[in-house]
Design goal:
With about 600 residues, the chain is α/β, with parallel strands linked by helices. It contains 19 helices and 16 strands. It has three domains: about 240 residues, Leucine-rich repeat, LRR (right-handed beta-alpha superhelix); about 160 residues, P-loop containing nucleotide triphosphate hydrolases (Rossmann fold, 3-Layer(aba) Sandwich); about 140 residues, no CATH class. The chain binds adenosine-5'-triphosphate and magnesium ion. One of its GO terms (molecular function) is ADP binding.
């Protein structure tokens, strides 16, 4: 109905061109506020039901296997000041520096074991970046191994980090030889962060290469698994990273709760705050996230309410930490939806703020604000709020990318489990029929079998390929997707709102039937070889975002683009378009 109204609106608008150039937005026939209000009610009811279900313990399938760990980097947040790790750091630093009783082996492993979120990666980063440690080694490299052990990727990453250049070799033997020669006779400091693989054979293969290094070389391994630590450890005893003390948790919590303020100015909050800190169970990640939550309301009653919440008492084996679940529970509903939607992004994905906001807008998660502020501005506020609540993190101040900690990502997956689905490269899954938002890891060649699990799904709102490694636009990575996505899959998904096939080299057209997808609000065809868009695109009256960045074969836009009255973002950088269709100036939202 909405689209029909829009179609009429466009038609009327065309008729009235001599009289009136555009319809003022205040005359918009769409009652967004009402619609969002209803949606919010519905969401709250659903949430209530989900909560009831949790209380009843109906949690089968929850906390699906963690499929992939965050690709961490060696970079530690600027000005970062850790709590309660001085002794750990000093002890491990001594082990990393040369000593008289070096082991007989050329290299020693420093295994760090501890539960998820306890601070293993952080400690490894502190050691790796310590100037005194650094200068003792000829070469340095950091690789985030993660759950899916991929020997080729590990060796390639180590090798690339040593040379600081990307490498095109994809054959294992050549890569091994290359790494062997790179380490030969040199002292190296490597970090294998987040190792899960227990196989001795795999480890032995890597170990063999490391033996070519000079005496005194070190490999820091972080892992949640004691068995893994036992597999890799040679001479240096396993270092158990203990939980933080309650007091350190309290200090960390106050840092995030009071931000620039002094906790002394809130003496009334100290007692209850310390009790909450104790419930963080020594986990810095929990202290940080809860601190950010508490900081939203520096009020005794509110803090007490959080302390008394019975979500604390839920068992959490194989599931999400109660402290993190609380952080979600206390989010305002508009943020809950936006946060849950982010579960379509895989662990370690670098969130591009602008793009995330465009997707939220496309999915109708951002209400049109009273003050006529652009929806994007509201989206930006939401994003910043999630950042200030530590649900997003910004690893580097000088770079515009954001990430989610892997346990926070688990939380997002947990809360969105029936509606969002991420198809990870190495797993074949059954996709729940009610899934609305679907993402998958782009492979080099995505054949139709990859999308078979979508067979019974009929109401996708989001279809979104993702990649973990940022693309190097100077390198011509050739990615292909089965044409069946356009010919067979797309036509069955009538509810699509956000659709992307960006980066695929074989995407050179869109079918005319794209015009049937009347709900589409977001299309991303960036870096495809699309030559022209069908005229039917101009009937997608709801379309807000059309991304054609880097489509170098595209020379022309359809003539009736002026009909896309809701178009807000059109990116044609890097295309060969040198003339815009007529009356584009009428698109007042652009
Ligand atoms: N000593 C500390 N002081 C302050 N913040 C910390 C400390 N240790 C860790 N953090 C913060 O807690 C969060 C979790 O830490 P980290 O990622 O190092 O945990 P982890 O043990 O590596 O978890 P995982 O097993 O999931 O990889 C990070 O956001 C980090 O900044
Ligand atoms: Mg880690």
């Amino acid at each position: 109905m909405d689209t029909e109204a829009l179609r009429r609106k466009v038609k009327d608008q065309t008729k009235q061109t001599q009289v009136c150039n555009f319809l003022p937005t205040s005359l918009s026939p769409f009652n967004y506020k009402g619609m969002n209000g209803r949606m919010e009610d519905l969401f709250q009811r659903l949430e209530h039901l989900a909560e009831q279900r949790n209380r009843l313990g109906l949690r089968e399938g929850v906390g699906r296997n963690v499929s992939q760990r965050t690709p961490t980097t060696s970079v530690v947040e600027e000005g970062f000041c850790p709590y309660g790790r001085d002794k750990d750091k000093e002890k491990l630093k001594t082990l990393l520096l040369p000593s008289d009783n070096e082991s007989s082996s050329n290299f020693s492993v420093v295994p760090i074991v501890g539960m998820g979120g306890v601070g293993k990666t952080t400690l490894a980063q502190l050691l790796y970046n310590d100037e005194q440690v650094k200068e003792h080694f000829d070469i340095h490299a950091w690789v985030c191994v993660s759950e899916q052990y991929d020997a080729l990727r590990v060796i390639k990453t180590l090798s690339e980090q040593i040379t600081e250049k990307s490498c095109d070799i994809s054959d294992m033997n050549s890569l091994e030889i290359r790494l062997r020669e790179q380490v030969r006779g040199k002292t190296f400091l490597f970090v294998l962060d987040d190792l899960w693989n227990e196989s001795y054979d795999e480890w032995d293969r890597l170990r063999t290469l490391f033996t070519y290094g000079a005496k005194g070389s070190k490999v820091i391994v972080t892992t949640r698994s004691r068995r893994v630590a036992s597999t890799v450890h040679n001479t240096i005893p396993i270092h158990d990273l203990e939980k933080l003390s309650d007091n350190d948790c309290w200090l960390l919590l106050t840092k995030h709760a009071f931000r620039n303020e002094n906790s002394i100015s809130h003496p009334d909050l100290e007692e209850v705050g310390k009790k909450i800190a104790r419930k963080c169970n020594g986990l810095p990640l929990a202290s940080k996230t809860l601190g950010s939550l508490l900081g939203c309301n520096l009020d005794y009653k509110e803090w007490n309410h959080i302390l008394d919440n019975n979500l604390w008492d839920l068992p959490h084996a194989n599931s999400v930490l109660p402290s993190l679940r609380l952080s979600y529970h206390y989010l305002p509903s508009y943020l809950k939806q936006c946060f849950a939607y982010c579960s379509i992004f895989p662990k370690g994905y670098e969130l591009e703020k602008e793009n995330v906001i465009l997707l939220w807008v496309a999915e109708g998660l951002i209400p049109q604000s009273e003050s006529k502020k652009a929806m994007e501005e509201v989206g930006e506020r939401y994003f910043d709020e999630l950042l200030s609540r530590s649900l997003f993190q910004k690893p580097r101040l000088d770079q515009p990318s954001f990430t989610m900690h892997d346990l926070i990502n688990d939380l997002a997956m947990f809360v969105s489990r029936e509606f969002c689905f991420r198809l990870d490269q190495k797993h074949s899954h059954e996709v729940p029929k009610r899934v609305r938002h679907f993402s998958y890891m782009r492979g080099n060649i995505d054949t139709s079998s990859k999308f078979q699990p979508l067979g019974g799904v009929k109401c996708l709102h989001t279809f979104f390929p993702v990649s973990l490694t940022p693309y190097d636009d100077t390198r011509d990575d050739e990615l292909y997707v089965s044409n069946k996505v356009l010919d067979d899959l797309l036509p069955t998904q009538k509810c699509l709102r956000a659709f992307s096939l960006s980066r695929y080299k074989n995407i050179n057209h869109l079918p005319n039937s794209i015009g049937n997808h009347i709900h589409l609000r977001y299309i991303d065809l960036s870096y495809t070889t699309i030559k022209m868009l069908p005229d039917t695109v101009c009937t997608l009256y709801n379309l807000q975002t059309l991304l054609l960045l880097g489509c170098s074969s595209l020379v022309k836009l359809p003539a009736n683009m002026r009909k896309l009255i809701h178009l807000r973002h059109l990116d044609i950088r890097g295309t060969d378009i040198n003339e815009m269709p007529v009356h584009m100036g009428r698109l007042k939202s652009l």
